[in-house]
Batch of 4 targets.
Target 1
Amino acid sequence: MTETEFIDRLRNNPRPMVVDVWAAWCLPCRAIEPSLQQLAREFDGRVELLKVNADEQPDLVRAFGVRGIPTLIGFNNGTEVSRQTGARPLSELRALFETALTGRPPAPRRGLLPMERTMRSLAGLALLLAGWLAGPSIPLLGLGGIVLFSAIYDRCPVWQALAPRLSAAFRREGTR
Amino acid sequence: MKVNEATWDRIARIALGVFVLYLGWANVVTGGWGLALKIVGFLPLLTGLVGWCPTYALLKVSTKK
């Protein structure tokens, strides 16, 4: 495919695309290849993955302004929306595919990490158990309840409804 | 507040905190020591839950790689 054909295909393709600029001798390119194949399957029919061999198509490399390989460029409606250079973990590569698909960078991750959630849940349950065995002890049971709630607060609909009002009330109080 | 405790460190602190609080609040240990355990147990529990140890921060050490 010539440079013009490729650019035409890119610009006139309404489907989101990810262009992978790679080379056979490039070790990081080989390192991310399994992840790219996995994402190509995951986004099959939604995001098209196009490979550009940097050695065989230097004009395209120049046209894309690529300064290092591997470079991945996400296109949405023919417009570049995201770019990554170098070997990246699967999560970052997936974010690039998602950006190409939606045209917007993915929303920043909110809420607790799974490890943090597990740790707080187990600590809360351990405190509840200790509180129950200790009599029961109201302070330990209360503390266990608070710790357990801290493990799930970001998924609690009541908290989600109350939190913005509470923070707004505190802000108003602070500005008085 | 940057986390300066490794996961194993946090788990050990939480387990220690729960155990010490149990000893205090279940009256396994009574008297002055019991009262001390009721209070002191909160320290490892809280530092384990938060993942940040002020002593580590003062000494500029960290168990987290």
Target 2
Amino acid sequence: MTVTSLAPGTRTAAAADVPSPAASFVRARRAARGRVTLGRVVHAEWIKFRSVRSTVLALLATVGAVVALGLLFSGVHSGVIGADTIGLQPGSAAGPVEVSLGGVNLGQLIIGVLGVILVSGEYATGMIRPTLTAVPRRLPVLWGKTLVFGGVVMAAMLVATFTAFLAGQALIGTAGASLSGAGVLRAVIGAAVYLTGVGVIGLAAGAILRRAAAAIAVLFTVVLVVPGLLPLLPYSWNGAVGPYLPSNAGTAFMTATHAAGSLAPWTGLGVFAGYVVAALAVAAVLLKRRDA
Amino acid sequence: MIEVKNLSKRYGPRAAVDDLTFTARPGTVTGFLGPNGAGKSTTMRMIVGLDAPTSGTVTVNGRRYADHPAPIQEIGALLDARAVHPSRSAYNHLRVIAATTGISRRRVDEVIDLVGLRGAARKPAGSFSLGMSQRLGIATALLGDPETVLLDEPVNGLDPEGVLWIRNLLKALAAEGRTVFVSSHLMSEMALAAEHLVVIGRGRLIADVPIAEFTARACVTSVRVRSPRAAALGELLAGPEVSITSSERGVLEITGLSVEQIGERAVQAGICLYELSPQQASLEDVFMELTHDSVEYRATVEAAPVGRAA
């Protein structure tokens, strides 16, 4: 506990006066004198991500929600669960693919909140200060977080959407879709892309607003509330604006069957990607500009 | 080496730091002293680039902090010991910071041993006492083996053993040729650890002096003399080594002469004394006096020879 626990060793002549200078400093100086690189910041963010249990649990919860709800909806759709075929009229847009991916609606909320908390949590705990002191150019922190979070979430969501799809089709049986069907593979991968994108938008919202409550409120408003309100507006507004909302643009590329009035799948992906990039760009400018 | 030049930080009309200029030099423990709210933390945040100055510049080892390719190997900072994720272990916290410049796990283990946290390193940082958090903060600051060490109130929350440990650590770091810049609002602690003092109040520089000068000022004893013939006594006692001031009618504050000398010379001259008492200022008194009103005392300490002021 005292300074005498330091190993002997000197760096300057003056150090001889001190009973126990720290030789350990000198060793580290030779061993690891490194620049801050994006790769290293990614590594640091990866250690951060996996060393807090709640983030890992939230990720697993998202996978669970996507798979479990997908199975539930598929079960209902096929008549395995319940006697009625609820809501889904014959000929409706929701085919077996969309039904098995229905868990995305809940999953996006969990993953969006996780994205928010990943950044707002650093402001709440103060961890942002040691983080930005270590990386004073700041932007690598945002890119590092985005890469780590985006990568991990993408991997987990691919597992989730493929599991939900395959298990769901197994439940639906002969009426089910196959991955080789038109647009099916795109829809299953698209669902994972959408979930990852919502997570990254959450992350950016957390960086922009810094407080979890505010960022989650904004995220939910954009993803859930606005699309729900649009049908109450004049039809022409709905037709002009509706397809370009993030959630509707997402739906365009994560459904196998193209619904009337929605964007073409690749257009939808482009629009959705635009939201993600715009959110990150605002976050980057503010991170660079504001006092931490 | 930390060089602060004309540094200011304004929040609206209020200046948290106002035209501050000083240098913290290598091989020296520089104490950064001021009452709470004087702008110490804001200054330190600007040094490591967390806050942007409204005007002025600050460089660390000759460059703006953010321009260093390996920042934490230039300056190790402890700004707020509680600023860690509470559910992450101390070990993983250090690993995160170390990873940004590729510092090895072995170095992480070294600093853990250095601050005496071996037993608690795997526990969540949120379960730490303030003293343990301070040790973790110091471990973080030392990770990169930095040339310059910056610590904001490092002795807060430490037990007496911990305070002694910090004091020795600071001296050892400075003896190795490092720049050590430590803030405190406790004069007594600084008197024991620092060799140079930068004192600020209301964001302005009050004093930038070697600690020896500061303590000499505190140790100066004056003698208070009350006499109906104060003016005559003053003329009698005046001399090259003697300073005499009067703050109220009939009362003299005399430095440079002992109580005995004054008493004997008064008797010889037949001057009656009503009061003859030695006065001594403690370090805390000097500090309080200095920071009591930054503007009034600003020039006094910097310009006036010690022992004549006030």
Target 3
Amino acid sequence: MATQFWWLIHKDLIVEHRTRQAWPAMLLLGIVVAVVFSLQMELLPEQSPAVAGGLLWLATLFAGLIAIERTCAAEQQDGCWDGLVLYPIAPATIYLAKLSVNVIALLALECVLIPLFVVLAGVPLLQHPWAMALIAMLGSVGIAAVGTLVSTLARGLQQRGAVLSLLVMPLVVPVVLAAAEATRLIAQDDLGSQWWRWVQFLGAFAVVFTTVGIVLVGFLVED
Amino acid sequence: MSRPTSVIQARRLSKSFHGRLVLLEIDLDIATGECVALTGNNGAGKTTLLRCLAAIARPTAGEVRWFGRPAGASAEQRRLLGVTAHESRLYPNLTLRENLIFAARMCGMSGPARRADATLERIGLSRFADRQARQASKGIRQRLALARVLVHDPPILLLDEPFCGLDAAGRGWLAGVLHERRNAGCAVLFSTHDEGQSRQLADRTLSLHAKTLTDLRQPVASGPPEEDLPQAA
């Protein structure tokens, strides 16, 4: 299973590298949102840390949905999804591989956006790099777990993109809020018990939705 | 003479979509080493039947068994199956070789690159190995789609209109493959619109009409015509 899991991720990354269908659009949208937010808001230096977390995670969500939508849409071409589910691999392995590809995309996006917020908005998001990395990882897994599940559910629909946005946005509000709050506390140099509670919430959200995805995907792969 | 082992078995199989009945109480048995043709008009439900037999579509009623066990009950059980469809199911941005390597890896085969090269050699597509699937002609994609499902030597083959889009050489090649797989003990079910093809290649023909299946028994075919055999390689 581990070998097949790895080769599924490898295949998706190779295809994205060759087609460049999702990542350039995702990165461009993320950068545009970050730049507009950072330059348009004339905030006092002490106000910036308070709003930077929310802006970072909204930019991540809007731009990240492009990559999440493409991961499953790519399998719809030429009946590839049916071919994939006919291989002797567990549907959960397919789900976890797609989830991993989406997490990699979101982390790549954050690797661009976080330094951009530091430079443009002057927000010290990297003063606790390991704490920021932890929030980025948990937030990305939470968003990707929901997005991958909904994307699998909506794979047969023509208006897949619209359905994905409509269903994912309300479901990921808790994770965006928690990640934004945890990011704000990092920017304000406050890694106390409140920060730790947000970390626990993000961890629980990621575990719950990943588990739900693993359980449900078996039912979603059949007609 | 002993009764042949039933490899694929359907009992009272029905399927409906949004209340519209497509298949009604289909009973079907295909034995080891048997090649069966499935005919029927457009929209008769041939693809739906094949999808139910492949456990891609869940029957509304009835059951499908592979080697006496409920079809598709486990991921491991799907190793028994090779299925082609109207679509090639190839990744357009992977090369022909990469598509075969990926299929071999997903089936857990050892030496996937070696196996892919051998398969390409066998189907005469070695010179196109590094061409992306989207750049290949329909005929080449069709051949590769079949090679992809043969890469792990499955004992069950379900082929949805496999001759569609193939030129004369391709049809000869495919006829040879069906003959070879049947002789190797594989159970083959293929859908076709061509009665001549079904008479020539299949042990018997099933006709799907008005949601039900009729078995048009016919003598066991001796194999594809002689001029088609060399293409099989």
Target 4
Amino acid sequence: MSAAEILELSARAAAAAIGAGSLSATELFDVYRERAAADKAAGDDGLNCFTWVSEPGSANGAGAPLGGVPLAVKDLFCTEGVPSQSGSRILEGYLPPYTATVVARLREAGAPLLAKTNQDEFAMGSSNENSAFGPVRNPWDRERVPGGSSGGSAAAVAGGLAPWALGTDTGGSIRQPAALCGIVGLKPTYGAVSRYGMIAFASSLDQAGPLTRDVTDAALMLRHMVGHDACDATSLAFPEEIELPRAERLEGIRLGVPQELTGEGIEAGVLAAFADALERAQELGAEVRELHLPHAPHALSAYYVLAPAEASSNLARYDGVRYGLRAEDPRDLLDMYTRTRHDGFGAEVKRRIMLGTYALSSGYYEAYYGRAQRVRTKIAEDFSAAFETVDFIVTPTAPSVAFRLGEKTADPLAMYLNDYCTVPMSLAGIPAISIPCGRSEGLPVGLQLAGPAFSENRLFEAAHALELGIGFEAGAARV
Amino acid sequence: MSRPTRSYAPGPDLQRLSGALRITGTVIGRDEVLHVARLARLALSDEEVELMARELSAVLDHVAKIGELDLSDVPPTSHVVDVTGALRADEPVPCLPREVALSQAPVATGEGFLVPSPQA
């Protein structure tokens, strides 16, 4: 098989070709490894997707269910002996002594580590511009961002530099970059996937998930990710086997369009592509109805209290004692803490630590954190009520197409608005998938489908039918 | 949106900060930035203090919108998915060997992490 033919294969097709003997796991690994290494060597002339690329000859996994299809993994997953610094200077030189459960599970299932991907520092960002490794570029237009925080993972899959990739989503960090890069991204139900070995951002929201070329690949990867892990007490046994989707029609499926997430603030071109996709869904037999999620407009406010509050606590561990950076010649212990953190954290991480510390500080706890946790309850109740009358909620994934590098870096609030449509599902802990649904200004637009907790199988079926019906052409972005 | 009502008295640290308590609207002043930075064990340059004051004020103004909702009878979310019986059996298992745990430290002795004295 030629390299060009190999690049045309989805992960599932590549695994099948290896199983049938028409492609070897080593051949497949080498094609992608060379492409990834070339991108890394090109620096800012490439897409800057990777923080680390494996050595030649690291292929394995043939004979296992995933056949040896190599996996790109977001930097924040701990990988034993392989640099893992969550896009931050403060973890410079850190070589974890253990591997994240989900990475180990995928490796055992036959998906060996290809490379580690660039990301926003500690997963805080929506453009991948907050990275100690520099910004990632969008393969559809090099002058634009890939979205974030799993920007390297999304750009690598869209650009054909990895067959598939692992990301994490706290408020939209898988779905939004998937949308901006024209690929598929799933945030699973909270607790479906072990968080053990994921460098924490906001523990009540963080969830690992797949970034893939198509819905079938996402289902295939998730099948080997889910399950209870003794190392993460919040992880749960998934109630059923994850199946590969086959649906081609949407008869009997009721899609709910929340007025609060499909109006003001969403770009006209995005709304147009979204409306086209809804028409396609109706042609496929779905019933589309409008509904309300009355508290959804407050989700972003609640999120930007809860996530920074949890982050300020989680990031307290970076103190220059056990790993990573330590400031030079500290005067005393406190001086070491404060200067190490000053030198090691980037601007956005400092901003969120400050915001979270403020919200949790004496006198403000109830007004901010306490209220935000109550808003969270109302948002979850809105979804429960909606799922009494519809099967899935549908929205645009992101309010805009990929924006220009530097366009929003000076205005934190403008950047935070990227999460407007994705944060409500994160707060409710429910699964949501983004699939490409068309283009605006030549750039991909994402459609988000969300379902009740543990509805991943049904979500994949609906997304698969819609994906076939829409027929998005993604090959143009492969570089 | 005005500053959210405090449900209990400010702690002694904040009471000392008369500057912080005179703020109207969601405006974070220099003193309050420095106070929070101290709580967060984060050194900030003068420029960072100024920038942080402006940016935190803007973000807090936005998030304070949740103050408009009536949430008096709403229980706070403690966990999004119902989980019961998450406790495991209390059985000892091996942990990381000491030399492995110490291997990533910026400075270590053979027996532990080495840090400067708390009071120089």
